[in-house]
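Everyone, describe these structure tokens:
***
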Amino acid sequence: MSIQIAVVGLGRVGGRFLEMLLETGLPGMTICAASEMGDTEGRRLATEKGIPLESVADIVARGDTVDVIFDLTGQPQVRQELREGMQNSGNRHTVVAPEVMAHLTWAMLTREAPPDVHGSTGY
């Protein structure tokens, strides 16, 4: 069974995070969806790799078929949309990993600190 991962926010940090996940070969993991409204390198990478680009609402609507959602937007309204979406749908399976968890994952994969782009990384 593969862990299903969605990445929300493919800007400077999120795009590089997606790239690093793909570089690891993702043993036991699949990136099932991503979300990015802007025209970023991360969005282009997701498209190139065949990763479905969806709205945050569409990712939430996937329900418990998504195991982990990495939120790398740095936007409080996206944090709120994810929280409310999980709560309203009754999804107690999917873990919404805030930027601080992505930063931890980043450091473990690369042995380097991620760029400090967004001020607050918590939920």
Notes: The mean pLDDT is 89. Helices lie at 12-23, 41-48, 56-61, 76-89, 99-110.
